[in-house]
Amino acid sequence: MKKKMFLNYKSLIGFAISVIGLYLGFRKFDIEGFFNAMANAELIFFFISMGIMIFLNLVRAWRWKYILAPIKKISIKRMFAAEMIGYFGNNVFPLRLGELLRSYSLGKAEKISSATAFGTIVVERVLDVLAFIIIMLIGALSYDNMPEWVHKGAFFGSIAFGVFIIVIIVLLLYQKNLKKFVEQRFDKYSHTKIYQFIENLIYGLVTLKKNPHTLLIILQSFFIMVVNIFFFWVVGLIFDHYFAISSVLLIYFITCAVIAIPSSPGYVGTYHAGAIGILSVLGFNLSESQAMAVIMHAAGFIPITIIGGIYFMKYHINVNEFEKENMIKKEQSEDL
């Protein structure tokens, strides 16, 4: 079962893409220049950046608490533990099973359906995507020193996004017929990623509409984006560089985009290639870009993996049991 779940063509493709990313990012490597750049790093800011990543996940747990509140009231401590277990899963296991592992761990600890817990994670992802798009468009339109192609893309993107939101709002007003309409018109595309995205988006927005804490959850989502962006600014201080807000936004947008690409656990390779590429565009030499990309990745990877691993062991997560439950759910969904 482990071989079927963890070692299949999808995980192999992810590893291959990571290797390509590492090659693109480090094919030209000056070992002396790299370690010289590393030697100039300020460790105090590195530790601060790790602290920001831990705080970021604490805020995520706080938001998750309110998303799940209509179902069951759960302490932030427990939510934080499940959150960290999920990111630990993404950093250690292939196929990015962290979200499923997070819902499984919370369901097991709090005696709620893991499917219900996973449904609230879908709401989280919908909010993250919407907040990301809004901040990206505002940032791209607001700062004059953004590249011209970014301004043009943001202009047309804003129009498209505005139309999209209006359509969604209209559909939500008639939500009783919404699911039926989507199933009738687009059922033949149900296996595609775009269909699943639309289905998750509708589910998330409908669920959010019914939640009494909707306004707070939306504000928390934007705060999460702000903390995430602040993390990249602090990473600049590690190398005694004060990023302009436009530079921080570009780094944030690119790194968020590249981690969506399939890869090995921990976004190795894809993250590095994207970070090195945008830092080079911003004027850093290759050795500095490579060193900064490694530090950026490490600042998030190290604390989350360590803390997540501790919670993983503390709550006695049984990987075999998790695999079995996940395989059963997958087989059931394929039979429907």
Written description of the protein model:
- The chain has 336 residues and is mainly alpha-helical.
- It has one domain.
- It has helices spanning 2-6, 9-26, 31-39, 43-68, 76-92, 98-110, 114-142, 148-173, 175-186, 193-210, 214-238, 245-258, 270-281, 286-314, 319-335.
- α4 crosses α7 and α6 crosses α7 (114-142).
- The chain is globular.
Count the E strands: 0
Structural class by helix and strand composition? mainly alpha
Number of domains: 1
- Tally of DSSP helical segments: 15
> What is the makeup of the main sheet?
none
Strand composition percent: under 5%
How much helicity do the residues have? over 70%
Low-pLDDT parts are: 331-336
Oligomer description? single chain
Written as H for each helix and E for each strand, in order along the chain, the element string is HHHHHHHHHHHHHHH
Distance from first to last alpha carbon: 22 Å
> pLDDT average, as an integer?
82
Return Rg in Å.
21 Å
The coarse silhouette is globular
Write the layout of secondary structure elements.
Blueprint: H1 2-6, H2 9-26, H3 31-39, H4 43-68, H5 76-92, H6 98-110, H7 114-142, H8 148-173, H9 175-186, H10 193-210, H11 214-238, H12 245-258, H13 270-281, H14 286-314, H15 319-335
Helix pairs in contact: 2-13, 3-14, 4-5, 4-7, 4-11, 4-14, 5-6, 5-14, 6-7, 7-8, 7-10, 7-11, 9-10, 11-12, 12-13, 13-14
Briefly summarize what is shown.
The chain is mostly helical. It has helices at residues 2-6, 9-26, 31-39, 43-68, 76-92, 98-110, 114-142, 148-173, 175-186, 193-210, 214-238, 245-258, 270-281, 286-314, 319-335.
